[in-house]
Design a protein that fits this description.
heterodimer; A: mainly alpha; 5 helices; about 0% strand; B: about 500 residues; 3 domains; six-stranded antiparallel β-sheet; about 60% helix; about 5% strand
């Protein structure tokens, strides 16, 4: 459950990163439709909120929010390092974590 | 005022970060290690292995204290809990003054341990806020460092113009200063709540020490109110109650699982006010006041009602912040997250210190030379010193007197050498050599562990003791990090050498 929250946090941050065109060019094979791009920021924030709610309901709000902050730091650091050096691999953690969960 | 607000904040950020940056880096690194305090102790005392339940250990501890500290007014026992493997006893010696005895028991045999003497993870914990300085100066220095960090955080947030727009910005390919600034920003913004929490709670933990006046006034009014009471008179020794029923009560209430009995405290032994307090292992509650306890009358053995604590909101906030700082509530996954954020914080301080010199390298000067050398000692030298501590733990003879102290001397000597070394070497070469030395010491540590503590390592593998095995893996990780850092410096050195060579040959042709 906590891994699912980390996954959602990472996905949310990735969506927010993709709102900027340089990252879209680096990560995606081609530029997505403008409607899709416009949907990215609300989707990203929504994913972050959902992960916070998931952790809050699962661990209680005090510990849930602490864990959420830690997830943002850890997931965000991994994302930024991947964006800088291997941008094509940024969706990989999502696939790995999803594989572990299923 | 000539300068803008942001410029003056930038100035504040630069100097508050620099002035105690070296101390702050050491505090950050040792504090990060402290998250694994008990695991470090277990690696440094590989002979001790936990067997049996905490209740068995409690019975053994009680027997032992009955024989070595029968006349003591106060006992204190820490029991093994899956992280810590040994049982630790403290007792206050009878008579005036505050003198304490201390012993570590093997939880399997109930006898004093036959293990190497070491400070273990306690060293990092103590160094984190006392810095090996005489009391109380270490704590004051740590407090000033925490205050400076708090100032640097606030001024840094104001200085950083595009906090959210640049959230993901890290461009390692750009000009060095730009890339370093990116990394500084990334490490800062990602774990910003953690830094605010850790520096603020650090101040709150010792607030009665840093700002004693309010507490003093309260104590004075309380003591004047208490003045009417008669002083306690020395009386005959009152025999304490049997311990076994209390232990049975605790075992029935808490079970044998992960969160079993953790601490025993016996206060006012030998008087009719004797109490026995049993504390349960920390659970996933943040605040330190959330501890579950059972209190017994130490003479009759009766279970007492839980004390009515009139804790106001101030105390509640204090205990919550204290709990957040120590992060004892964290399970393994969250503990690793805190460890990672601690590393990010160390990187934040280190990049800030290095950037100060990068911006001023063109100008030169004595101040720059000093800061560059202190940076090397603080950032590249500290890992060498920590590795030296671990090497000393494995290499010093087991029966050496004051062995634990000698390990610490090893740490301090190694750090001292790292302070001297940049004085006789060029700056970049000194960076490279110290990073490379640290990498080698950490990477070889698992090998040394296998050579000097082979049976313990084999037993750890058989019992799937992840504390021991994980420690060796973490040391390899630290070694690899330092190795990559050394490689980057080495590349810079080579680039500088190839740039200097044609220039030198061009210079010589001109002279010819």
């Amino acid at each position: 459950m906590n891994l699912a929250a980390l996954l959602l946090t990472y996905a949310g941050l990735l969506a927010l990163a993709l709102t900027r065109s340089p990252y879209r060019r680096a990560v995606l094979p081609r530029e997505p439709a403008p409607t899709l791009v416009r949907l990215l920021p609300p989707c990203g924030w929504l994913l972050l909120v959902v992960s916070a709610c998931l952790l809050g309901s699962n661990l209680g709000w005090p510990l849930g929010l602490v864990t959420w902050c830690a997830d943002i730091a850890g997931g965000g650091f991994a994302l930024i390092m991947l964006l800088a050096w291997h941008p094509r691999l940024t969706p990989l953690p999502l696939a790995l974590a999803a594989g572990l969960l299923l | 005022m000539k300068e803008t607000f942001r410029q003056s904040m930038s100035w504040l950020h630069t100097w508050s970060g620099l002035l105690l940056g070296w101390v702050l880096f050491a505090i950050f690194v040792t504090g990060t290690a402290t998250y694994f305090r008990w695991e470090i102790t277990r690696w440094m005392q590989p002979e001790i292995r936990q067997t049996g339940t905490p209740y068995d250990a409690a019975r053994a501890a009680w027997q032992r204290l009955d024989s070595v500290a029968a006349d003591s007014p106060q006992w204190f026992v820490e029991l093994p809990d899956g992280r810590a493997a040994a049982t630790t006893l403290f007792w206050r010696h009878a008579g005036p003054g505050r003198r304490f005895g201390r012993e570590t028991l093997d939880s399997a045999t109930g006898r004093p341990v036959v293990a190497r003497d070491t400070r273990g993870g306690e060293f990092f914990y103590r160094f984190h806020f006392q810095l090996q300085l005489p009391h109380p100066w270490g704590r004051y220095l740590a407090g000033v460092a925490a205050m400076f960090m708090f100032v640097a955080l606030i001024s840094g947030v104001i200085t950083h113009r595009k906090m959210f727009a640049d959230f993901f910005t890290f461009r390692p390919g750009r000009a060095p200063l730009r890339a370093w600034l990116d990394f500084h920003n990334v490490t800062a913004v990602l774990a910003l709540p953690f830094y605010f929490m850790i520096s603020y709670s650090a101040l709150v933990i010792f607030m009665t020490m840093y700002m004693p006046w309010g507490g003093r006034v309260l104590a004075e009014s309380a003591s004047s109110a208490r003045a009417g009471r008669p002083a306690p008179t020395a009386s005959a020794w009152v025999a304490p109650a049997d311990f076994a029923p209390m232990l049975a009560t605790a075992q029935a209430a808490w079970g044998d699982g992960q969160r079993a009995l953790k601490r025993i405290e016996v206060a006012n032994r030998g008087t009719d006010k004797c109490t026995v307090t049993l504390t349960r292992a920390d659970g996933p509650k943040i605040s330190l006041n959330a501890r579950e306890q059972l209190r017994f009358d130490g003479v009759s053995g009766q279970l007492l009602d839980p004390p009515v604590t009139a804790a106001g909101p101030g105390t509640a906030v204090h205990d919550a912040l204290y709990g957040l700082h120590l992060a004892r509530f964290a399970g393994p996954a969250l503990r690793w997250s805190f460890f990672t954020m601690g590393l990010l914080g160390s990187a934040l301080v280190a990049t800030g210190l290095v950037m100060w010199t990068m911006k001023r390298r063109a100008r030169g000067g004595a101040g720059l030379a000093l800061v560059e050398r202190l940076n090397i000692t603080a950032i590249a030298g500290l890992p060498v010193a920590i590795a030296a501590l671990f090497w000393a733990n494995r290499l010093l003879p087991v029966d050496l007197a004051d062995r634990g102290d000698w390990e610490v001397y090893g740490f301090l000597c190694a750090w001292g050498f790292m302070l001297m070394h940049p004085l006789v070497r060029p700056v970049m070469a000194a960076w490279h050599e110290q990073l490379r030395l640290g990498a080698a010491l950490f990477l070889l540590l698992p090998l040394l562990d296998a050579l000097t503590a082979g049976p313990c390592l084999r037993a750890a593998w058989q019992h799937r003791d992840w504390a021991h095995l994980g420690f060796d893996a973490a040391m390899l990780g630290c070694g690899l990090l330092l190795h990559f850092a050394a490689n980057r410096v080495h590349r810079r050195l080579r680039l500088a050498a190839t740039a200097a060579a044609p220039a030198a040959s061009a210079g010589s042709t001109v002279h010819a």
